[in-house]
Structure formats: C-alpha cells, structure tokens
C-alpha cells in the first residue's frame, strides 16, 4: 500500500507527532469544518494529555484545492481535485469530511491498531506515574506528579472513544460528529463554530435556506450553492431535497465519487424516491460500480424489510440475468404509487398505450367469441386480465384446466424475467384451439443478446425486465402455442426517447403433448 507523505506546508504538529490524524475536507463542507475542527483539536489535546514529553497524534488538514479565489488554510496540505480524489479512494474515504489515522509511514491504522495504541498510551502513562512517585519519595520534581493528579485520564478516555468513532466508518460518521458537537462550549468559541438549533424539513426558516441555496445553484455559483445545502443539512440531516441537490452539484463539478454518498443518503431516508434510485443505477453506477453496490448493501442490511426499491435496485445491478422476478412487495409499491397518477404520468407524459394497442390487435384479429367493439351484449369469454405480476402464478394455479378463453397482460412482464412457469400454466388453463394469450414485452436490445448467454432476458438498469424475441419464440414452440400477431411498438417514452417493445397474440394449439 502506498504511503501518504506530508507536504512542506503541512501542519507542524503533524510532523512532530508519532501519528497523524488526516482530516479530509473541501470547500463545500466548510460549514462543517467550522464546527468540527475546533472540537477535533480538543479531542487530540485530550489524547495527548497523558504524555507531555512526546506528542502522540498530530492533526493534518488535507484539502481539495478549489482553485483561484478560494481561501485555503496555509497549514493544510492542498491537493488538486484528481489527486485528492485518488487519495480518498486509496483510504476508502467516500464522504467529506472524514478522518484517517496514519502512522509515520503514512499507512492507515485499523481499529485494532488504534485500540493497541490507546492501551500502550495508558500503560506508558502508568509507568511514568510510578517513576514520578519514586521521584516524589526522594524529594524530586513534585510539580510533575501534580500534572497527573487532575482529571486528564478521564478526559482522555472520552477523547479516545470519540476518536475511535471518527475512525470507525468513512461514510458519513454521523455518530462521531454528534459526539464532537456535544463537546461544547469550547475554550475559545468563534461565532462560526457555535451550534445552531435543528429544524424540521417543513420549517419556514429551513425552506428559505434551501431556496437561497437553489438560487445560487441556478445562477451557476456551484461551490457556494453546495456549501449552502450543507448548511441546510447541518440544521436538518433528513432533508432529502438538499442531499439530492448536493449530489447533483458534486456530479456537475466532476466529483461523482462524492456525489454517490449524498444520493445514497436520499434513498436510505426515502426508499420511494424512484428518481434517486434511477440516478444511482443508470449514472453513478457506470462511474463507480463498487461504491454504489456497497452503499446499497449497507442500506439493505439496516432496512431489509422496508426498502424494497433498494433491494430491487441492487438486484438490477448485480443480478441482471440471475434475478428471475421482481419482489412482490416492490411490484405492489410501484402499482400503488401509480394508481392515482396513471393518466397523468404514463398516458399523457410517457405516451403509454400498451393496453389499448393489445385490444386493437385483438379486435383486428376478431377471434370467434370476442365481443365486438361497442357491443352491449354479455361477454362470451372467460378472461384473465393479469394486472399485477405478483399475483399471476397463484391466480392461474387456482383456475381449472382449460377454463380460460383469454389471458391478457399489458406491460406486466417488465416485472417478471423468467416466463417459463407462466407459459406452462397458461398452456394448461387456456382452452385448446380456442384459447388466446395476449401480452407485451420490452425488447432486449439486439446488441445485448450475445451478452445475455442463453437466458433470454435481463433486468435492465431502468429496473425493468427486457426479453428477447428468441426467448419468447422458444417458449411458444415448446409449450404449444402459435403466433397469430406480433407487432413492434413503443411501450413508453423515457427522457423523450421511445422504448422499443413488442406485442404478441398467441393461440393455444390443440392436443399439445
């Protein structure tokens, strides 16, 4: 592992100390720095209080160089963005600010080595105490002994605990920052280091702060806007709008690596935010797949029962051809979410017409028994309108064999990858010779077919399943159907671009073996 060298302009106390606490930061988190850095210095004072002869841990600020016009601390080690980002990746720093404890060779200390360092520090202190006691008996330097009769050991215990929290995680160590913020008032408190009261998301004061930040963003003042959104998050960490906007700004300035953690915070707080999930899957994953996947794993580990979209997104990223169907809870949530806005979102905005296209194709085919358009007579067919993919298998299993005339599923297979079981059940439940199966698929792009081996489907980055024509035709031939209609369609528009699909109308063949 490469070592981390200290620059000539690095803080002097870091050079003199046995170990270095590297504090990674940048201009957009300056409001956090103002609160945290004075308290970190107090923590290190507590850690170093046990040994007056040798400073144990020094502080080094490692700052992303923001360029001309941005005020930087002369004592900090300043790095241009790509070098700073590479160093953060090297030490697994994914969110700013973050702390990494380094030895003299620039290697990061683990939690285990930190504990050993703490124990050694207290052991050396205890040994020195015994030496001082011996000196006192001999009439030696009594003032040195008095130095250790205060509560420095107690304060050091707390300092070690907080330091351990700071180093425990590199992803938004909120518990550590909260522990730091509790260390107030400071010995010398500047106005910017005072802690402001928390606010709720809908508090008018917070709304005004967020609107001011948004105005800066829209006027092109990206770093001031990012810093302003950080101020909002300091007052209300649960403000998902601010985390989302901060992620967008960081991506805009070329720092997608740091944007990932902001967007992950959005979905951790609000799993229903489909836009944030889409950005993570379709944009950020392409630049840093490991960071996005590990973030989803962490969220799911803490919220496996409630975050169904996160589970589905991770399956999209890691199980494109091994995930066989979407989780029922995810499908139900999507259907519930669209229930009240179907006409507006899908029909008007996305130009979704699949159900009507299927009906039109059936009417053109005019199979015997189909009720003509505009007829007021009772329908002659027993129709299974499959409206939710989560229910189709148990529903078909409950039907009697050869009891159905039509099984219709409009835009349902986007939630189901493997269709073998559905086709097998449909073969049994449809009437021989007179049974029909009408459905739509989102087409697997031809250029991707070779990469999907023989599976015939994949869970696309959009979170929807795509199927190949060859896969459908293999099921048709194997399970006793003939193709009456197949027609290329646009299933919907996405970012203004039509999504290719196909509708099929299949007829059940009699006496299939």
Quick recap:
The chain has 513 residues and is an alpha/beta fold.
From the structure above, extract its key features.
513 residues; Glutaredoxin; Serine Threonine Protein Phosphatase 5, Tetratricopeptide repeat; Rossmann fold; 3 domains; Methyltransferase type 11 domain-containing protein; SAM-dependent_MTases_sf; TPR-like_helical_dom_sf
Describe the protein.
The chain is of the alpha/beta class and 513 residues long. Helices cover 49% and strands 13% of the residues. Strand 8 and strand 9 form a beta hairpin. The longest helix is centred in the first third of the chain and has 27 residues, at 111-137. The N and C termini lie far apart (64 Å).
Tell me the layout of helices and strands:
Blueprint: H1 12-16, E1 19-25, H2 30-48, E2 57-64, E3 77-79, H3 81-90, E4 98-102, H4 111-137, H5 142-147, H6 152-168, H7 174-181, H8 204-218, H9 222-235, H10 240-252, H11 256-269, H12 274-287, H13 289-302, H14 308-318, H15 328-338, H16 342-349, H17 354-365, E5 383-385, H18 392-398, E6 406-409, H19 420-429, E7 436-442, H20 446-449, E8 457-459, E9 465-467, H21 469-478, E10 481-494, E11 497-508
Parallel strand pairs: 1-2, 2-3, 5-6, 6-7
Antiparallel strand pairs: 1-4, 7-11, 8-9, 10-11
Helix pairs in contact: 2-6, 4-6, 6-7, 8-9, 9-10, 10-11, 11-12, 11-13, 12-13, 12-14, 13-14, 18-19
